[in-house]
Amino acid sequence: MDTIGSTRRPDTGLNARELSILALIASGYENAEIASILGCSQHTVKNTLYDLMGRLQLRNRVHAAAYAVREGLV
């Protein structure tokens, strides 16, 4: 069963929601603002970010933003 944002991009292994969250973090948005922009809950943003940071071995939001820029995702 597909859910919104579940299709993974083969070149990154990240889905649309994860890419959107990374881009918004790199732009300086907080979780509440990201949730409002994406039309989801803050809990969803927090959980997605937590999962993403674990999989990519990112230490914090700054590291996540740097990763996004370095990988050309934003």
In words, what does this structure look like?
With 74 residues, the chain is mainly α. The protein has one domain: Arc Repressor Mutant, subunit A. The protein contains 4 helices and no strands. It has helices spanning 16-26, 31-38, 42-56, 61-70. Helix 1 packs across helix 4. The N and C termini lie far apart (28 Å). Residues 1-10 have low confidence and may be disordered.
Beta-strand residue percentage: under 5%
Q: Using only CA atoms, what is the Rg?
A: 11 Å
- Gross morphology is globular
Along the chain, the helix and strand elements come as: HHHH
Mean pLDDT level: 88
Broad CATH class:
Mainly Alpha
Percent range of helical residues: 55-70%
CATH fold-level label: Arc Repressor Mutant, subunit A
Q: Could you say which structural class the secondary elements and strand pairing correspond to?
A: mainly alpha
**Unreliably modeled segments:** 1-10
Number of helices: 4
The number of distinct structural domains comes to 1
Q: In CATH, what is the homologous superfamily?
A: Winged helix-like DNA-binding domain superfamily/Winged helix DNA-binding domain
Question: Could you write a compact summary of the structure shown?
Answer:
By secondary structure, the chain is an all-alpha fold. The protein has 4 helices and no strands.
Supply the key terms.
about 70 residues; mainly alpha; Arc Repressor Mutant, subunit A; 4 helices; globular
